[in-house]
Design brief:
Strand order of the largest sheet: 4-5-6-3-7
Strand content: 5-15%
Largest sheet: 5 strands, parallel
Number of strands: 7
Helix content: 25-40%
Shape: elongated
Number of helices: 9
Order of helices and strands: HEEHHHEHEHEHEHHE
Distance between the termini: 57 Å
Length: 258
């Protein structure tokens, strides 16, 4: 453990000392030279007899200190395929069994949007079931992940508090919200949090069967930052309206057709 801590300190990896029960915090004089820096790290006390309140606090501090811990649970994890999986499940878009083909114009539009200079931006992709919205989003996530982004479909358990940690990653983040028309409350909470915190470049990709009153709900959100982020979708600004797979992008909404 001595060597692992020394390597972490040298590599500038966050180290959070946990001081148990009645233990005293060591000073730099108590530590070997390679670990002296540990004495200056912000520590967390953990009282075993008060584990009920102390453990959640410890977890919160760890997530604040190492936002990547939150990122690992913020996105849906790929489902492992094995012999027990029925053949029908192989067609799920997140498995990517069938190679991604076509949709070059849509993919180019989304990639250009992801690379735009805004710190936070929202893009809407609409289309009926089976048109390939989810497959397109998964493929985009894979491409951006390979380029150093944190990208994926948001987990159903992710909260606005999780989003606060994501905003502090200090990197590029693509968050995909599938069936966004039924998740407007959480979309608003996420946007409100993401717009106020951190330095991460955030891209929020909304997938829905159609635009509708749910867009108006977000446009009239009581948080002006949320309303402003959604306003472009409502007004058709930077919107992409497609009549076929090779249509050139002009708008910030992508409507998928067969």
């Amino acid at each position: 453990m001595h060597q692992e801590i020394a390597i972490a300190l040298k590599a500038k990896i966050p180290v959070i000392p946990v001081i148990l029960t009645d233990a005293k915090r060591p000073t730099s004089a108590d530590l070997p030279a390679a670990l002296e820096e540990l004495a200056d790290c912000q520590a967390v006390r953990f009282q075993s007899r008060h584990s009920d309140p102390d453990l959640p606090y410890l977890v919160r501090r760890l997530r604040e200190g190492v936002p990547r811990l939150t990122a690992n649970r913020f996105f849906e994890k790929p489902v492992e395929l094995d012999d027990t999986v029925p053949p029908s499940r192989l067609l799920r878009s997140d498995h990517g069994i069938v190679p991604f083909l076509g949709r070059a114009a849509e993919l180019n539009a989304l990639t250009a949007w992801a690379d735009s200079p805004e710190r936070i931006s929202v893009f809407l992709v609409t289309g009926q079931a089976g048109q390939g919205k989810s497959r397109l989003a998964h493929y985009l996530s894979q491409r951006l992940s390979a380029d150093g982004w944190w990208a994926g479909v948001i987990s159903e358990h992710a909260t606005a508090e999780d989003a606060a940690h994501i905003a502090r990653l200090g990197t590029r983040v693509l968050i995909v919200v599938d069936e966004a028309e039924g998740d407007t409350l959480r979309v608003g909470e996420m946007l409100s949090t993401l717009a106020r915190l951190g330095s991460s470049r955030i891209r929020l990709l909304l997938l829905a069967r159609s635009r509708g009153a749910w867009i108006d709900t977000l446009t009239s959100h009581n948080d002006d930052l949320v309303a402003e982020a959604i306003y472009g979708l409502s007004e058709g600004m930077r919107e992409l309206s497609l009549s076929g797979p090779e249509t050139l992008p002009h708008r910030a909404e992508c409507v998928l057709t067969s």
